Amino acid sequence: MNIDFLIDNFADLSVTGLAQGAIYALVALGYTLVYGVLRLINFAHSEVFVTGTFATILTLRGIGIGPDDPVPSLLMVLLTLVLASIVAALSSGAVALLVERVAYRPLRRRNAPPLVFLISAVGASLVLMEIYALFLGRDNVRVGNLIKPRTQFTVFGADVTNRQILIVVSAVLMMVVLDSFISRTRLGRGVRAVSQNPDAAALMGVNKDRVIALTFLLGGLMAGVAAVLYDLNFGVTKFSAGFLIGLKAFTAAVLGGIGNLRGALLGGLLLGLAENWGQALLGSAWRDVIAFVFLIVVLMFRPTGILGESLGRARV
Amino acid sequence: MRTTRIFRSAAVLAVAVLAVAGCGGDDGADSAKGGDTCGLSIAFFGAQTGDAANLGINISNGAQLAVDQYNAKNADCPVTLEKFDSQGSPDQAPALAQRIIQKTTIVGVVGPTFSGESKVADPIFNEAGVPLVSASATGPALSEQSWKVFHRVVGSDAVQGPAAAKYIRDTLKAEKVFVVDDASEYGKELADILKAELGDAVVGSDTVQVKQTDFSATVTRIKSSGATVFYFGGYYPEAGLLRKQLTDAGGKDILLVSDDGVRDAGYVEAAGAEAAEGTVVTCPCVPPDKASGTFAADYQKAFNTAPGTYSAEAYDAATVFLDGIAAGKTTRADLLTWVKSYNKQGITKKVQFDPKGDVADKTVWTYVFKNGEIVPDQPVQ
Q1: How far is CA A259 from CA A160, A242, A291, A308, B97, in A?
Q2: Who among A16, A19, A67 is closest to B272 (CB)?
């Protein structure tokens, strides 16, 4: 136990924890959306995320921003960021749609039992991972030099860098956009209807297949943006990068209440914080233990997660 | 009904394939016996894929070069190098060791590459009496198990750890050192040696995980400890990310000293040349250009890349077996006796083993990363 260290560095640990948690949250949305509609966990979502990390790198390379190049001008950085986000989101979204088409739709047509979906998802995940390893190598691949972390202000002794601000703000912004899309638009209403009662929704004229494809697409888009932020934060990615982040994002989704969009945000941020605080207390080797013990304790008292499963209920 | 039929025909087909494969295997064994001593192989045991594949490929290439050169001279009776990919993971090692043992044409093994996989695979080889010469497994405990088959052509971490500690204490004159390890067999052992050697100078320590990407808590720990040097026991993927994240968080001046598992271009790939600048690594390996003869040039020509960590050592390890085969030692038992009494100048050092399997010459070198390149610095005595 190292309580002094935790107290002395509480603010610093919280800031870095929030940045990591924001990325968890964006990836968690993909799990939550698909679960809300299909009641199954899309285990290939981690590779949907990895697609985005590679798409970002390739976009930067295309523009001519390499890992050892100097940081471009601010305007150029902003334009590149927007472009990279669009490309990454579209690539991830496309792969998510592909996974739905290839790994899920044929099974749904045949009314396969839920376990088969699970196996198919794990298979899709492995196939995608090895494809990336084949074409892009098994080593770390570096991201173009886009942002040099610079301290913007200090909170209780913790330096907050431009990069951390960008990550948290973008993640929350994406959440808000998605949340209002689901709750305000016509398509969003379709998603909620299928989530509440698929059969009734179909009878009311909602095209179930289209809604399911839409949820995969939305999850993919969010994962793509998360991938850009991940690349900015860590500066490298690799074919297997999705495994750990997928696992944590899934945990975050369950923690906040799977099927619940706001729950995913809350779960992600809380998980990022809990991991950092716990590591400070017990040592970094305990990182995953802390994450899962935290999950178990929360589920003991709130079996449906902190905010409950509520994509299905009319509120979201 | 239809499914049953399909299953039945599939089963028949499978049996047929197995029978054919079985015959093929028999033929191979026959020709090995019939053709006097030809058709023998040496196995390479180590990572060819996975996170630390670079280290394994450096080694298998070094061994491959030795075998190719031997075959050029002995074209009528060539030796094959068979590569067994462990992905560097102890989980896969036992099954892989069994496969090597069952293949009777394999008379010796270059490897296993890492200490973790050696710990689980070596007892299996020991039982079957397959001689091993590792070019890279540096765990001190490996030579303390009274395994009769174990040998290595590099000094162990019992030499490397103290050498790193000596470098930090005497050359860098660091008074505050932070020690990090990756919880692996290899990294933890080195970190423990460092902590014991440096004593009060160690102001803090932390353990990270293999495959971890976010090191923010460790970075905070290192920064708040006030250390001027941090030691990392582990491999290059984690070392590179940790270095980069520490530099990004304003810890640019905290120097990293690490081990032979980080002596790889993959480190620069993860950290970036800027953050990697100045990092010091120790290695019980000689600089490739210090290897005698035309090794560096031959390697460059064969693989279109400069020799890496332990490439030259692997060449020496394979040569031990090849010399034995040339001298007519063509069974595992004969080769084991041969290895034990081997005493010859290799390209990296004089190769001679003590009864525990450790090599006599154990010089440790330090290397420094400069402009993304690994530059030899000095031997630490």
Answers
A1: 32, 21, 20, 8, 46
A2: A67
